[in-house]
Specification:
The protein is an alpha/beta fold. Helix content is about 45%, strand content about 15%. It has one domain: NAD(P)-binding Rossmann-like Domain (Rossmann fold). Helix 2 crosses helix 9, helix 4 (about 70-85) runs parallel beside helix 5 and helix 5 (about 110-135) packs parallel to helix 6 (about 160-180). Bound molecules: D-gluconic acid (GCO) and calcium ion.
Length: about 260
Amino acid sequence: MSQELFNIKGKVALVTGSTHGLGMAMAMGLGKAGATIIVNGNSSQEKIDNAVAEYKKNGINAIGYKFNVASEDDVINNIKKIETEVGNIDILVNNAGIIKRTPLVDMEVEDFKQVLDIDLVSPFIVSKHVVKGMIERKAGKIINICSMMSELGRNTVGAYAAAKGGLVMLTKNMATEWARFNIQVNGIGPGYFATSQTAPIRVDGHPFNEFIVNRTPAAKWGDPNDLAGAAIFLSAKASDFVNGHILYVDGGILATIGKPSNE
Ligand code: GCO
Ligand code: CA
């Protein structure tokens, strides 16, 4: 019974930005649970090929598609290709994102817009073109990858926070429009995880490294593999009446105001 609730065998999952980091960790989790993984990135074909090889090494059926999630034409063409070459997309994880760490007063408008484009407009673009098939089939799962910055501010990440805060409301609105078609749209809000994105602020001796460990009730940086369970839950039958919810996987950060560093 519980196995049936979490069974995603044979499902096709498109995970944007799945060549590394949290996207790869979540896609690995979905793949090990039996889903076929559409690996996506936009930096180079070589990076995609290497990632696909890594998935295959883990016994996962993975196929790579290089495209820019911020370009509607690129998205339309590749969704069509995926649907004819692999099959209907059952699960979409909007994970691709960027961050620029610059104080708002110094930030160029162009840079601010680029962050919004990739972190907020892209989930709209990709979902818009994947959901059409889901609506026809009256079934689908969409997971938008949010952030601590969906709820909290932090110096230097204003554009990212604006995008990730917006993504929460986009998630709720997608759920509002699409839940009636048996499509569940939810979010995962990762806390602070050890990835290449956080590498610059995680180095030993960096004040932020100690700050995060102290600020997190679980008292450590997250291991990207800790996100697999949330991704599987929101992709499976177990979440069929869960709509517009953000599941924070953060070691308890949002549960607390924090504590002095000597406590
Ligand atoms: C930062 C971090 C964060 C994390 C993550 C937190 O500079 O504060 O990079 O933005 O990446 O999104 O949930
Ligand atoms: Ca199928």
